[in-house]
Amino acid sequence: MYDVVGHFGSRLSYATVASAVCRALRDAGLLGTVTNLDDKVLPEYEDIVQKRGDGTHAILFVDPSRWLFDAAASAYGARNVAVFASPNTDSMLEERADVCSRAGMVLAPSQWCIDSVNRSLARFGYESPPWVCRVPLGVSREYLGVSERRTPGNKLRLLHLGTDFSWPGRKGTEELLKAWGMVQGALAPVADLLLHVPTVLYESVHYAVADAGLEGVRIEIAPPRGSSDERLVSLYEQADVVVLPPRCEGFGMMLLAACVSGTPLVTTYVTGQIDFLSKFDGWIGVPCSDRMEQMEHEQGLCPVVEPKLIASALLAACSPLVLDHLREGARRNAVRAPAWCWDASVIEWIDTLEQWRGHT
Questions:
Q1: Residues 263 and 214 placed together within one structural domain of the fold
Q2: What secondary structure, in 3-state letters, does 128-173 show?
C-alpha cells in the first residue's frame, strides 16, 4: 500500500499528477491514506483525499523539502519514501538535492528532469538515490478529438497559455510579445493573438502590450492552472495554432494537450518537452540560443529564446501552405494521442512503483 502526500487544494501540476496516480493506485487496490497539505480540498479531489489504511511506502507530490521528507522518513524509513521531482531549471537548490539523495526513489517526468537532478546531486556532492525513474505524464481524455470540433473563423486565432506568477517568467510570454511586435504588420490583419494569463500576471501583461503599442492582441484571465474542465478544453477547440515558447519546461503538459487535441503548435524544442514532441507531428520548433541566463525568481539557468526566431515561426505557421501541412500533421497525432492520456500513462507508474516496493 502507498500513502500519498500532496497539495489538493490547488490545481498546480503537482496536484494534477498526484490525483491521476492516486486514482490508478485506488483502482489497483494499492492506495492507502492520502494527505492534503492545504487548508481545503478542491471538489475534484474529494474522492481521493481520505484515510483508507496505513501504507508501507509514501509518495511525496510536493516541492522537495527537508522538513516534510524528514517527517515521512521517520514514519516509513527514508528508503520507503519516493519524491516527485519536476525541476524546470538546470539546477536545484541544495535542499532539494539533499532530499533526492536520501529518498528511496526519485520520480521524474522527463530525461531533462533526471539530468537536472543528477547535475544537482553532483554539484553539491550528494550520492544518487537507489532509484531514479522516468515516468510518463498524461492529459485528460477530454482533449481527444478537439480539433475536429473546431469552427473556422474569419481570422486565425493564435492561443498562448501563460502560467507564470512573475514577470518576466519562463513560459515565453515576454519573448512572444516582442516577437509579435516584429510581425504584427503582417499578421494582425489575418490573425489574433489571444493571451490567457493568471490573474496575478494580468496587469503586467496588459501594460507590456500597451507600452509596446501592439495590435491584434487580446488578454484574458486564464482558467485555473492545471484545470481540465470544459473552459480549458474549449480554448484548444477555438485555436488554429497554439503558441507556447517556454525557456525551460520540466515536461510541458500544455504542449502535450495541444498535440493530443490535434492542434498545430509553435514551441521551443528544448528541455523536457523533447521527450515527447519527437513522437508527434504538426508543430514548429523554435531553437534556443546557446546562451544561458539566470532567472531572477528561480534557482538555476534557463536557455535564452530569441524573439526574432519566434517571429519567424509565427510567420511560417500562419502562411497557408505551412498551416495546411501543420494541420495534416496534427490530424495524424490522433493515432498516437490515446497513449498519452492518463489512463494509459498511469500503467507504467504502477509497474514502476511495484518494482520499487518489491526491492525495499
A1: yes
A2: CCCEEEECCCCECHHHCCHHHHCCCCCCEEEEEECCCCCCCCCCCH
Other beta carbons less than 10 A from residue 97's beta carbon: 23
Q: Give every CB contact of residue 213 below 8 A, 6+ residues apart in sequence.
A: 181
The string of pLDDT tens digits covering residues 53-83 is 789 999 999 988 899 999 999 999 999 999 9
Any long-range contacts for 290-295 (C-beta under 8 Å, 24+ apart)? 292/90, 295/89, 295/170, 295/247
- The residue whose grid cell reads 529518498 is 103
Any idea what DSSP says for residue 279?
T
- Burial (CB count within 10 angstroms: exposed 0-12, middle 13-18, buried 19+), residue 255: buried
Mapping DSSP to helix (H, G, I), strand (E, B) and coil, where does residue 62 land?
coil
* Amino acid type, 304: V
3-state SS class at 316: helix
Cα-based angle 271, 277, 283 (whole degrees, multiple of 5): 115
Burial class (CB in 10 A: 0-12, 13-18, 19+), 94: middle
Structural domain of 215: 141-340
pLDDT in tens, 8-39: 998 788 999 999 999 999 999 999 999 999 99
Q: Could you tell me if 80 and 130 lie in one domain?
A: yes
For residue 193, the surrounding DSSP H or E stretch is strand 191-197
Short-list 4, 23, 5, CA closest to 228: 23
Q: How many domains does the chain fold into?
A: 2
